[in-house]
Write a structure and sequence with these properties.
The protein has one domain: P-loop containing nucleotide triphosphate hydrolases (Rossmann fold), CATH 3.40.50.300. 39% of the residues are buried. Helix content is 39%, strand content 24%. Bound molecules: adenosine-5'-triphosphate (ATP) and magnesium ion. Adenosine-5'-triphosphate (ATP) binds next to β2 and α1.
C-alpha cells in the first residue's frame, strides 16, 4: 500500500482560557490520508473540524500528538522548515476574501507562493494566470482586488492559489458553504476536474453530507473533539455504526 501523504496520531488540542475551564477542542484523533485520496471530515458545529485543519497546517500548535506529512514529522517544525511545509499542504477557507491582501491584486496573491520560492516575477505570474484561467477566471479579473470580485470568483482565485505550488494535500474547510447553490455546484465541478488532472489528496471538511457522498472516497466523523467513526462513504452513510453518525445521517440525508 502507498505510504500516506498525511498521518496524524493522538492529535490533541486544549485551549486554555484565563478564568474559564479549558476547552478540549480535539482529543486523541488519529487518521491517515493516502496520496490522491479524498477524505471527508464531518461533524456538528464545534466538534473540532476546523481545529484539526488548523493543527495540520500548523496555524495552531498541538497540545499533544504527531503530524507526519510525506513521511516527515512536522509537529514541531518552526521558521523556514515550517514555511516549506506550507507549500506541501494548502488550505481553502469558507470565506476567501480575508485571506487575500485587500490592497493587492488577486494575481499577486495567487503567484505569491512561487515568488517566495524564488521564481522570477514574470514566470510566476504567467503560471498563475494560466491556472487562474483553468479555474474559470479570465485575465481581466486577475488584476482586480479581492473586494472587487464576487464570492465565487474570489473562491476560484483561492483554489488557484492553493494548487499553484502543486501541494500533496489540499484542506478545504467549508470551501463552498458561503456560496449560493449554483456557484457551489460550479466550484465542486472545478474541484472534481482538478482532482482528476492532478494526483492531489483532499481533506474535505463539510457539513453537507450530500456533497461528501458525491465527492469523497472515505469519511471521518467527529463528535465533541473525538473521532467516532471512519470508513468508506458508502458504508458510513448507508450503514452508520455510531449513534451520532446515525443521527447526522437521519437529520441531513434522509430528511
Ligand atoms: N481559540 C479558541 N479558544 C478557545 N476555544 C476555541 C478556540 N477555537 C475553537 N475553540 C473551541 O473548540 C471547539 C471546536 O471548534 P472548531 O472551530 O474546531 O469546530 P468546527 O467543528 O469547525 O465547527 P463549525 O462546524 O461550526 O465550523 C469549539 O468548542 C470551539 O468553541
Ligand atoms: Mg469549522
Amino acid at each position: 500500500m502507498a505510504s500516506p501523504v498525511l498521518k496524524v496520531s493522538g492529535l490533541t488540542k486544549r485551549f486554555a482560557r484565563k478564568g474559564h475551564p479549558d476547552v478540549l477542542a480535539v482529543s486523541d484523533v488519529s487518521f491517515a490520508v493516502l496520496p490522491g485520496e479524498t477524505v471527508g471530515l464531518v461533524g456538528g458545529s464545534g466538534s473540532g473540524k476546523s481545529t484539526v485543519a488548523r493543527l495540520i497546517t500548523r496555524l495552531l500548535e498541538p497540545t499533544a500528538g504527531t503530524i507526519v506529512l510525506d513521511g516527515q514529522d512536522v509537529s514541531s517544525l518552526h521558521g523556514a522548515s515550517l514555511r516549506e511545509l506550507g507549500q506541501a499542504v494548502q488550505m481553502v477557507f469558507q470565506d476567501p476574501a480575508p485571506s487575500f491582501d485587500p490592497r493587492r491584486t488577486l494575481l499577486d496573491g495567487v503567484s505569491e507562493a512561487l515568488r517566495n520560492k524564488g521564481v522570477p516575477r514574470a514566470d510566476a505570474q504567467a503560471r498563475a494566470l494560466g491556472l487562474m484561467r483553468r479555474c474559470g477566471l479570465e485575465e481581466a479579473l486577475a488584476y482586480r482586488r479581492p473586494r472587487e470580485v464576487s464570492g465565487g470568483q474570489c473562491q476560484r482565485a483561492a483554489i488557484a492559489r492553493a494548487l499553484l505550488p502543486d501541494p500533496d494535500l489540499v484542506i478545504c474547510d467549508e470551501a463552498t458553504s458561503s456560496l449560493d447553490v449554483t456557484v457551489q455546484a460550479q466550484i465542486m465541478e472545478l474541484l472534481a476536474a482538478l482532482r482528476r488532472e492532478r494526483d492531489t489528496a483532499y481533506l474535505f471538511i463539510c457539513h453537507d453530507l450530500a456533497l461528501v457522498q458525491d465527492f469523497c472516497d472515505r469519511v471521518l466523523v467527529m463528535e465533541r473533539g473525538r473521532l467516532v467513526e471512519e470508513g468508506t462513504v458508502e458504508r458510513v452513510l448507508s450503514h452508520p455504526s455510531h449513534p451520532y453518525t446515525q443521527a447526522l445521517v437521519d437529520a441531513t440525508l434522509r430528511a
